[in-house]
Structures are given as C-alpha cells and as structure tokens.
C-alpha cells in the first residue's frame, strides 16, 4: 500500500519523464549508499592509522566544512550552467574521494580529503533537488519531490550496514573500492538524465 500512490503517479507520466525520474532515483540511492557507508567505518579507519579521538572528530567534521563552503557557489553554478552539471560534479567527487582513503594515512591529508569529499553532498543535493523540481509537473511537484527524497533515508539505512559488513569481512581496501564503484555507477546514471530546462531560465 505504501508504494501504491507513487507508482500510480509515475504511471501517469510520459515515457521520457518516467525514465528521467527513475534514473535520478537510482543515482540518488547509489550516491547516498556510497556516502553513508563511511559513517560507521571511517572513524575506525582514522583510529587504525593512528588518529586520536579528537583527530577523528576533526577529520569527520571536515565533510561539513566542504559542504558549507561550496554549496552557495554550486547553487549559482546550477542556475548558470545547469542542474545536471552540478549533479555530475557531486557524483564524480563521490566516486573519486574513496581512492584518496586508499592512499592517505596522515591525519592532515585525511582532513583535506574529507573537505573535498564534502563537496559531493553539496553538489549532489543541490543538483538533484533542482532537477527533480524542474522535471516534476507543477500540479504534483511537492509530492514528487517527497517521493524522490526517499533516496536519502534509504541510502542512510543501507549504506552503513553494507559498509560495516565489508569492513569487518573484507577490510578497508575493498570497502573503499566498493563505495567508489557504486558512486561511479551513480555518475553513469546521472549522465543519462535529460534536463528539459535550460540553465538561466
């Protein structure tokens, strides 16, 4: 019953709109799952490379710094150059950042990497929400945005479970490769979205 209403709404859309929204939804699930996989595992990784509890907090906080610093300019970029570009930036950063965790083991470098990783959520959430708003019919825009926003809580539920499992059974290297891989698949999905609305309009 929970899925009846959104499925009914989606079935009323033309083929192109339905395709765009479904691809966006898939990209959102992959992005949030990749991002959330770090929540239970990255603090352990920082500790394992010699970080103190205070340094764990500092490195983890770097994510918010990247988000806060870059979100305003990414919003302007979405208006000037298009929402899809900003969405692609977000997914690309999410796919690139995990390779840094494979290489960097010093706390200062991990801090700067975490700031870079924060750009992903600043870009993705801005581009994703704006794209959904552009694509959704005006009469049910709020409803569609609410359905499409479910990617975040679903990803935040699934990601930590997968991340914790991979870290425990396969180690950090496979965890980081997995998060990079699913973010890259999300990037491929995002690249297939066709935005009917031009930048600056």
Query: H/E order of the elements?
Result: HHHHHHHHH
Name of the CATH architecture: Up-down Bundle
The portion of residues forming beta strands comes to under 5%
Distance N to C terminus: 38 Å
In CATH terms, what is the fold-level topology?
Growth Hormone, Chain: A
CATH superfamily: MFS general substrate transporter like domains
The CATH top-level class label: Mainly Alpha
* Biggest sheet architecture: none
Structural domains: how many: 1
Mean of residue pLDDT?
A: 91
Strand segment tally = 0
- The parts where pLDDT drops under 50 for at least 5 residues are none
Radius of gyration: 18 Å
| SS-derived structural category | mainly alpha
Shape: globular
* Tally of separate helices: 9
Please estimate the helix content: over 70%
Domain Major facilitator superfamily (MFS) profile: 20-201
Transmembrane segments: 21-44, 56-73, 85-104, 110-132, 144-166, 172-194
GO molecular function: transmembrane transporter activity
Keywords: Membrane, Transmembrane, Transmembrane helix
Task: Give the topology.
Layout (H helix, E strand, L loop, with lengths): L3 H8 L3 H22 L5 H7 L4 H29 L1 H21 L3 H29 L5 H8 L2 H19 L2 H20 L10
Summarize the structure.
The protein has 201 residues and is an all-alpha fold. Helices cover 81% and strands 0% of the residues.
Question: Could you characterize the architecture of this molecule?
Answer:
With 201 residues, the chain is mainly α. Helix content is 81%, strand content 0%. It is built from 9 helices and no strands. α2 (15-36) runs antiparallel to α6 and α2 (15-36) crosses α8. The longest helix is centred in the middle third of the chain and has 29 residues, at 53-81.
């Amino acid at each position: 019953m929970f899925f009846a209403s959104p499925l009914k709404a989606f079935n009323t859309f033309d083929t192109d709109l339905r395709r765009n929204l479904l691809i966006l939804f898939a990209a959102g699930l992959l992005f949030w799952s990749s991002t959330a996989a770090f929540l239970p595992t990255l603090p352990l990784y920082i500790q394992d490379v010699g970080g103190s509890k205070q340094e764990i907090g500092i490195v983890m906080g770097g994510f918010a710094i990247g988000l806060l610093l870059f979100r305003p300019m990414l919003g302007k970029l979405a208006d000037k150059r298009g929402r899809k570009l900003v969405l692609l930036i977000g997914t690309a950063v999410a796919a690139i950042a995990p390779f840094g965790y494979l290489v960097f083991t010093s706390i200062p470098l991990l801090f700067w990497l975490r700031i870079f990783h924060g750009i992903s959520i600043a870009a993705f959430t801005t581009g994703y929400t704006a794209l959904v708003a552009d694509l959704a019919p005006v009469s049910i825009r709020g409803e569609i945005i609410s359905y499409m926003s479910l990617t975040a809580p679903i990803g935040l539920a699934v990601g930590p479970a997968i991340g914790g499992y991979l870290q425990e059974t396969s180690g950090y290297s496979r965890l980081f490769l997995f998060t990079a891989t699913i973010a890259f698949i999300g990037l491929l999905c995002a690249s297939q979205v066709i935005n009917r609305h031009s930048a600056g309009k």
